[in-house]
């Protein structure tokens, strides 16, 4: 349907967005690349000359690098699994006829509106604190020893906090998808005597696959760069030092901009590997 | 969607859903409740749920210490401005991607999304230097632009998926009638796209409101939004749960209320093309 | 054409108007500070300053300590110029001053009386003999203990205890059934959190961070002894979740009566003896930080100080403010409003000579602790650095925090003291190499 005229018009209309994002990507990227080949220590006088790939080698060979990649993947993976599994269950539940559906939906989506800093502070102090936290009181009430969440179950705790924030998002998208499901098809299957589990497996889940990939993609984008939750709770201790946090420590705590920039380049590479991986899955679904 | 169910099953559904809903909402509820306690009651053992002496003292202390309205206003400007600017840039782009797709459309779209994966901490130093040289530090306009750029990929994508669901035939018909491109957008497309645009605006307003890295690092006093407001209440000396709760409630209340009132709108457009 | 010209004129006059508006309005000082009690009090007393200095307005940026450090370091290192006055510590001051980033504060007015500043504070905040940051309050560390629990345990706290006595007392006071823990110590990772404390323990056990050639020393027997002592003590007599407890967490625990002893900043004394916040206000005793008889006590020296970044466009106004906030008059002002116990401590000699202040129960011990600390010679062995609970080199913040995370994980039971020391030694060696030592 596209004519030559509309095609060039279309390109013209796309320009502002493309140019802006290209600038937003390239300018910092080029500067980061520039710094990453320098010995750049602001507290020791700033630019101390070119060092080739030294920063890259150092960042990679540091004993903290691979554990940080691992924690990043565990956190992202853990949150994805929890939000998608519980998101599907919750969406199925919310789709059922009930009284006060609107209010329940409001309750469920509320965490999405809470700033990450606030939610981390609230969870850390008022829930997970081993002495004054509500969970500690709950454990004591049942006669158990309170759990030291943020030190002994640090990764799990962070995954829990982040999942709490993102569950509403997953639930909403999945719920919309479920609601678009052809109910006649389901009823027919029910009439035929298909048990709930196979109805779920053969009709609902395939229908949701697209929504699930969307959730996967969007959440991964946001989760790869989570920072506030870690900064507020563990500051990277107890194995929660993600790649993002490691870079933060290099650039801001050690004030080694060159080394941190090399880390930034690695993070971009990691993000792109994940992205390519995701795009492969999502790309197909986007065509449909 | 009306499926016939027994009353018994509906009751079970209701109980289950409410239980889960309240569980998920509980941390927020607890924060709000704690904000009305005294510091001593906030850490009392065993914890008190409802039966305590309700007090507004914490809100008074917080307001006295920091000018809440200024932080709030900055948040509104930054989140609102960046969303508005983002929409202005994104609508034409999404329109052309949805209605005049080329081979590269999908690639461009995915590339846009991939720019969101730049780790913010890694580029803080360059961005900070750029902001200094442009004199944008601690200005609302600087943050509006940064927030717009951060959320632009999401805005474009949401609008794109929404526009794609608008049947092309309608546009064809309008074109047959001799409508110009401008009129096509203005009178045919826009009315159909309003719900999608509305939910895009909402989602991005929320995302910009809650963003805590750039807003904290690129501001000082004048342009500091609520994320900076919160940073002055986390772990001070002495007992602080009640004051922290009051500050937290003040920081999230506006967006929570907005979200609740507009949740139908938000939900309708929050499909990212997941629904076919 | 005329149109454009008109437009240009308009916008020019608009611009001029805007800049006029900015220029004509009062000078505004942007002050970055920590959300500690004394600073928040200062914020509340701003009127006193603005009434004496019409034409200067104050904008406060009050942040949590970690966020504040990150913000001001970033800003000064890039010459961002967002702040006119910064609250910084004894660690940053000499490093930043050496870079030429701070305005010298040797002329804060005739009645400022810089010689009245406690000598330890003054030397710690100076570079090449010039003061670069004015102390708002200063602190050392000391033992705070519950007199009632000590009595119940049948022990008596000497004025200058040894670590052995502290360990014995801590075990005797512990009553986990009733949530009483013999000792609360910092465990939360961070160079200003657990490493400040752990470094003082190490100093008192005869350990040091680096030898004369900047070689990391965490593999020495002294470190092993110090860390093992800290670890064992916390396992037996520490509160649950100690690995996430910093100053604030321990303060809350002590105020709730859950700690028998707490070794931490002397400024905490005014919080734990304040009946409004503390349930044990009238049962607190003080003692010098412990030692092992090797010649160094485990007390640190720290000051939160106000500094002015070089290049600020409001240098004179900023100096007026710094002079006001760190003056004798300010101490009197706080005393008149909140009582002498709430005056920011540890900055001026005259405060400790004031008979009114001498009545404050922790005044004497605070001064003695401060005087017992010598940043110039922090360890038993020779070291190439200054600083007691920190090492005054730019790399320290990174090193301290990275090592602190290992010791924090150790306290949480995730690794043994030996493993923690080994990893810390490797990390420190890495960082020092990256920074170009040896």
Short description:
The complex is a heterotrimer of chains A (about 290), B (about 280) and C (about 450). Chain B has about 280 residues and is mainly α.
| Biggest interface between chains | A-B, 109 and 99 residues
Cα radius of gyration of chain B in angstroms:
23 Å
Number of domains of chain C: 2
CATH superfamily of the largest domain in chain C: Periplasmic binding protein-like II
Oligomer state equals heterotrimer
Overall shape of chain B: it is globular
CATH architectural name of the largest domain in chain B: Orthogonal Bundle
List keywords for this structure.
heterotrimer; B: 276 residues; MetI-like fold; 13 helices; 0% strand; C: 438 residues; alpha/beta; D-Maltodextrin-Binding Protein, domain 2; two-stranded antiparallel ribbon; 19 helices; globular
Can you give a write-up of this model?
Chain C: It comes from Oricola cellulosilytica. Chain C: Keywords: Periplasm, Signal. Chain C: It is found in: Periplasm. The complex is a heterotrimer of chains A (288), B (276) and C (438). Chain A has helices at residues 4-36, 54-61, 65-95, 101-109, 116-127, 134-141, 149-152, 154-179, 183-191, 196-223, 228-233, 243-253, 257-287, and strands at 38-41, 46-50. Chain A is mostly helical and 288 residues long. Chain A has a two-stranded antiparallel ribbon with strand order 1-2. In chain A, a hairpin with a 4-residue loop joins strand 1 and strand 2 (46-50). With 276 residues, chain B is mainly alpha-helical. Chain B has two domains: 7-60, no CATH class; 66-232, MetI-like (MetI-like fold, Orthogonal Bundle), CATH 1.10.3720.10. In chain B, 73% of the residues lie in helices and 0% in strands. Chain B is built from 13 helices and no strands. The two termini of chain B are 17 Å apart. The model of chain B has no long low-confidence stretch (mean pLDDT 85). Chain C has helices spanning 2-24, 37-44, 46-52, 65-77, 92-98, 119-124, 147-152, 163-173, 194-204, 221-237, 247-255, 268-272, 315-325, 328-338, 349-353, 355-358, 363-372, 396-411, 417-434; strands at residues 27-34, 56-63, 85-89, 126-127, 130-131, 134-146, 181-184, 259-265, 284-288, 301-307. Chain C is globular. In chain C, 45% of the residues lie in helices and 14% in strands. Chains in contact: A-B, A-C, B-C. Chains A and B meet through helix 1, helix 3, helix 4, helix 5 and helix 6 of A and helix 1, helix 4, helix 5, helix 6 and helix 7 of B.
